[in-house]
Amino acid sequence: MTEDDLNTPSDRTSDTGNELREHEVRTALLDLLAEVGTVTATEAAARLGYSSGLCSFHLRQLARHGHVEEAPHRGGRARPWRLKQHTPTTGAPAKEQFDDLARGLEDESWQQWLTQRDQAPTEWRHDEAFSAVAYLTPEEMSRVADAIRRALVPYQDREQRPLARPDGARPVALITRLFPLLPHAKDETSQA
User: Fold this and answer.
1) How far is the C-alpha of 35 from the C-alpha of 42, rounded, in Å?
2) Which one-letter DSSP state was computed for residue 76?
3) Would you place residue 95 in the very low, low, confident or very high pLDDT band (cuts 50, 70, 90)?
4) How many Cα neighbours within 13 Å face the side chain of 100?
5) Per-residue pLDDT tens for 35-84?
6) What is the DSSP string of 57-69?
7) Quick one: residue 141, left, alpha or beta (phi over 0 = left, psi -120 to 50 = alpha)?
8) What is the chain's Cα-based Rg?
9) 15-24, 42-51, 92-101 — which is least confidently predicted?
10) Rounded Cα gap, residues 58 and 25, in angstroms
11) Which CATH class is domain 3-191?
12) Where are the beta strands (DSSP E) in the chain?
């Protein structure tokens, strides 16, 4: 069996992991579009390691939900896609809109997990969600983020190299948000 065999849609999806896989493919497509501007399903497949049919399906789904749109082209069979062009009245920069979209997909996946985790195999029916508040300087916050990124480095190649995945490995959403907590208006006056 080759690495390409492992990337076929039937191997990349299963009843229990389908939602996570869909989120993974769509997020990868959105990241790619943010990076390169426009892409066809065939180009996305070559860059991401999925089949062109799978990429085409998810690009159409993202378009159906208003996240991407067909880019202008000269006809022919090739259908280039791009991130949906929002009207300037939104006021938000494109990166901010993309970040909001990514957070929305993360939140959607989390809610889906909460409602469907009883359908997962027994050994996967738990999660490792946690949160903490720490008093940090901006430099310390950056160091914490860097430490988390370094901790994930040994696992990053498994996305593009299915043969590097150990038996029983499944896609797991790893979401970290570090941000300063802003004081409430009432608290500001008491600290002045």
Assistant:
1) 16
2) S
3) low
4) 8
5) 888 899 999 999 988 888 888 888 988 888 888 888 887 767 778 898 88
6) HHHHHHHHTTSEE
7) alpha
8) 20
9) 15-24
10) 7
11) mainly alpha
12) 38-39, 68-70, 81-83
Q: H or E element: which one contains 186?
A: helix 185-191
Q: Is residue 71 within 8 Å of residue 40, measured between CB atoms?
A: no
Q: How far apart are the first and last CA of the chain?
A: 67
DSSP 8-state code for residue 39? E
pLDDT digits (tens, 9 = 90+) for 169-181: 988 888 788 888 8
Place of tokens 């299963």: 14
CB 135 within 8 A of CB 180: no
Please state the pTM of the whole predicted model: 0.45
How many helices and strands in the chain, by DSSP H and E?
8, 3
DSSP code for 123? G
CA angle 176, 180, 86 (to 5 degrees): 70
Q: Residue 145: CB partners within 8 Å, gap ≥ 6?
A: 176, 178
Q: How many CB atoms are closer than 10 A to CB 55?
A: 25
The DSSP code for 138 is H
